[in-house]
Specification:
Keywords: Cell wall biogenesis/degradation, Glycosyltransferase, Membrane, Transferase, Transmembrane, Transmembrane helix. The chain has 507 residues and is of the alpha/beta class. The protein has 15 helices and 13 strands. The strands form 3 sheets. Strands 5-6-4-3-7-11-9-12 form an 8-stranded mixed β-sheet, with helices on both faces. A 3-stranded mixed β-sheet has the order 8-13-10.
């Protein structure tokens, strides 16, 4: 009998939620009845409308669930060398809004997952096409040769070097690592101040040739750039242990071609990774959302390796948690109702939302509707060629072309991350759920990923504006196409209408 890899229970507050629903419903009925005895028709109409919106919001409060995973039992299911391969997607766009050192720290924290290194690949999408970002990753690849064995041998949990050196006292060995990381930061900061990569900062002749070609690049007009920075089959750390793959990608941008924002960048990563590593599991991470628990992939495996649970499982979502929140969270940066409470309720309906980061996908779910039996992870064959081989890179450049999706209308509508909304995460999971896929909300005691909350009023309002405009787009789409499911509609309507209080608080 297979061991129990995960379990769940109905959340303790469920009874209170249901009791509140019944009492509040009774109060609403009495109020509406009272309105029928008064001549104010407009007041009655307004209260009926508000009561209807409140009713829709109750779907994800009716059956919230809590889950627990037992990753220590995975060894009884399969050996670690047989774990399904994992591709990590990290997107960045502007080196001045998203500092390259911070993005590199996020990538380093993913490279340092407690996962077989020959089955782990990290892809960085630089949608700004910046030589500054690529330079930072050349430096990060060198630093990884020392950083990964340091984390492994010292049991480090915060595997983002930025977060680790800010929060921990340093012993002699850690102090050496800190000096190396400060040197990396100084070199990158020097390039940032100049606005370009001075060839005097580059030691390798190969790197010099790469940066010489960058002079004519602009943010919106440049060819595709794919650079294999670390390759598991040939690169090793200072202890002789194989390193995971690290690949930098900047898709081709041309003024005449639509690029579809972050969803377009993710779909390019989806195609390039299929060409290069073709891992059956995919993790999407925001560039400022670092790993805080190196065992997070194993928690996700507790669901994906459960043969009775996973046939129609599309993704496992971890909550967004934040550092840097001020004492009273005056900008409502935690978004606890959206990122935790609502997710637990939707998980009880088998439809937790994709929050854009900290989410493990089954690659197969992004290509088709759920089959009768989920294909084995072994069916995703890893390529035997070196990632840096001419044949692999030629195919990767082809699928990263700005012209690739022309004539392939299924991309963004039936395949991959969906186009048509500024919130591609909500829209993508909405479409996946409508196809019959289910999802899981995984909320361990130790936050699996940590990001930074908006630090200013302008940043907070800008973020909320983009989210709510995207949600309105999604609502309009659902009305036009007649997509069904009261549970999903209730969640989106709640966030679009009742969720306005969050925006009003910020204003």
């Amino acid at each position: 009998m297979a061991p129990l890899l995960h379990t769940h229970q109905i959340h303790p507050r469920t009874t209170l939620n249901r009791l509140h629903f019944l009492l509040y419903s009774l109060s609403l009925l009495l109020l509406l009845h009272h309105h029928t005895t008064t001549p104010s028709f407009l007041l009655l109409l307004a209260d009926v409308f508000l009561a209807f919106l409140w009713l829709l919001s109750q779907g994800f409060r009716w059956r919230p669930v809590r889950r627990w995973e037992f990753p220590e039992l995975l060894s009884k299911v399969t050996a670690s060398k047989d774990f399904p391969a994992l591709d990590v997607f990290i997107c960045t766009t502007d080196p001045y809004k998203e500092p390259p050192v911070g993005v590199a720290s996020t990538a380093l924290s993913a490279l340092a997952f407690d996962y077989p290194s020959d089955r782990l690949s990290v892809y960085v999408s630089d949608d700004g096409g910046s030589d500054l970002t690529l330079f930072a990753f050349f430096e990060a690849a060198k630093f990884a040769r020392c950083w990964l064995p340091f984390c492994r041998e010292n049991g480090v949990m915060e595997r983002s070097p930025e977060a680790y050196f800010q929060s921990s006292g340093c012993d002699v060995e850690a102090e050496k690592m800190k000096v190396m990381f400060e040197s990396l930061k100084e070199r990158v900061d020097c390039a940032m101040e100049k606005g370009y990569v001075d060839l005097n900062l580059v030691n390798s002749l190969e790197e010099k040739e790469i940066f010489k070609t960058w002079k004519n690049f602009t943010r919106k007009d440049h060819p595709s750039v794919i650079q294999v920075l670390l390759e598991s089959k040939k690169d090793k750390d200072i202890t002789g242990h194989p390193l995971p793959n690290l690949i930098y990608i900047s898709r081709e941008k041309r003024p005449a071609s639509l690029h579809n924002f972050k969803a377009g960048a993710l779909n390019t990563l989806l195609r390039v990774s299929e060409t290069m590593t073709n891992a059956p599991l995919i993790l999407t991470l925001d560039c400022d959302m670092c790993s805080n628990d190196p065992y997070a992939p194993k928690r996700a495996l507790c669901y994906f390796l459960d043969k009775d649970f996973s046939p129609n499982l599309s993704f496992v979502q971890f909550p967004q948690r934040f550092t840097g929140l001020n004492k009273n969270d005056i900008y409502n940066g935690e978004f606890r109702r959206v990122f935790t409470l609502g997710e637990q309720g939707l998980d009880g309906l088998q439809s937790a939302n994709y929050l854009g980061t900290g989410c493990f996908f089954s690659r197969g779910s992004l290509y088709s509707s759920p089959p009768m039996a989920m294909p084995s992870f072994d069916e995703f064959k890893l390529h035997s060629c070196l990632l840096s081989s001419e044949l692999i890179l030629l195919k990767a450049h082809e699928v990263a072309s700005s012209e690739y999706e022309h004539g392939r209308k299924e991309w963004g509508s039936q395949i991959g991350f969906r186009y048509g909304s500024l919130v591609e995460d909500y829209y993508t999971c909405y479409r996946l759920h409508c196809q019959g896929w289910r999802s899981v909300f995984c909320n361990p005691d130790r936050p699996a990923f940590l990001g930074e909350a908006p630090k200013s009023l302008v940043d907070a309002i800008s973020q909320s504006k983009r989210w709510f405009v995207g949600l309105y787009q999604l609502k309009i789409f659902s009305m036009v196409t007649g997509l069904r499911s009261m549970a999903f509609c209730s969640f989106y309507v709640t966030h679009m209408i009742l969720g306005k209080d969050e925006v009003l608080m910020m204003e």
